[in-house]
Please model this.
Amino acid sequence: MVRSRQEGIPGQESKGRGCEGNPIRWASAKIDRLSVFLARIVEAALVAMMVLTAADVLLRLIFRRSMVGAVEVQSNYFMAAIVFLPLAFGMVSRQGHIRLDFAVSRFPPR
Model:
């Protein structure tokens, strides 16, 4: 039995299904994938920051010397990545927007 292209093969997900011929959906799907990728980078940066901090504390306790440049790397690179990279993920994910409940509760219902 020959399957048509639209029918697909069971168990395999068709890449781009629903995006063919629609550049807006294609771009939206790419932006979603990019934002998830950036969120994964933030997770790795957060773990690296925790490991670097723990290593710096342990070295200070054991050898009475801290790592050179650890504070600068944490404050300049890791903190910037942790703050700004997940903004895209928050904007494209559902319920990711920051809401001000005290202001919204004062508006009249629709």
In short: The helical segments are 23-63, 70-84, 86-92, 101-104. Residues 1-14 have pLDDT under 50 and may be disordered. DSSP finds four helices and no strands in the chain.
